[in-house]
Structure formats: structure tokens, C-alpha cells
Request: fold
Amino acid sequence: MAVITFLALMPWTQELPKPFRWSDKLNHFAAFVALSWSLLAAYPLKATQAWFGLVAYGAVIEGIQSYLPWRSAEWADLGVDALAALVGILLFPLFERGVVQVWSLISAYKKHHK
Reply:
């Protein structure tokens, strides 16, 4: 969360070239999927609690950006944050299952190769 907050608030004065202007939204999407997975992995929250918390965090970031001369707040960014949080929450069981499987493979490998 600290890294995402830093990246969201740091000065950025360059305009992206035309084909990459959507990358801002992709960055928001990736950040909020990762945040939702991290949040749900760390805390036993209900999906609605996680979603509202992540949307509130996104709103705070956008609110702070509206006061920074080198940043701008956008409703579209908050919309992408909310959608990405929802997608991340819905996909969390698959993410968790994948992590457990990878962890068990690593453990089995370490046992076998001692």
C-alpha cells in the first residue's frame, strides 16, 4: 500500500504517447487487483468490507491528487479502482488456490532434494 501511495502521489509531468495513454488505467487496475489479493490474504475480511475499504482508499488517493499541482483527480480512475477491487475479490479464491499449490510443490521439492 505504501508503494502504491508513493507512486500515486509522486510528481509526474510527462504526457504519455498516444498508444500508452490507457496504461494509467491499466496501472490502476493492476494495483487494485494486487491490493485486494494482499488485503484478503492478510486479513479475514468479508468481501464487502474489503471492497468498501479499497474504494475508500482509492477515493482518498484521488482526493489528495486533486490538491497536488502535478497530479489530477479523475472519476474514471476511481471507477477503475472499484472495478479492479471487485475483480480481485472475485478472483481471490483462484489466486489463493494457486499460491497453495505452488507452495506445496516447493515444499515437496525441498523435501525430496535434501
Observations:
- DSSP finds four helices and no strands in the chain.
- Helices lie at 2-9, 23-42, 47-65, 75-112.
- The radius of gyration is 17 Å.
- The CA atoms of residues 56 and 82 lie 9 Å apart.
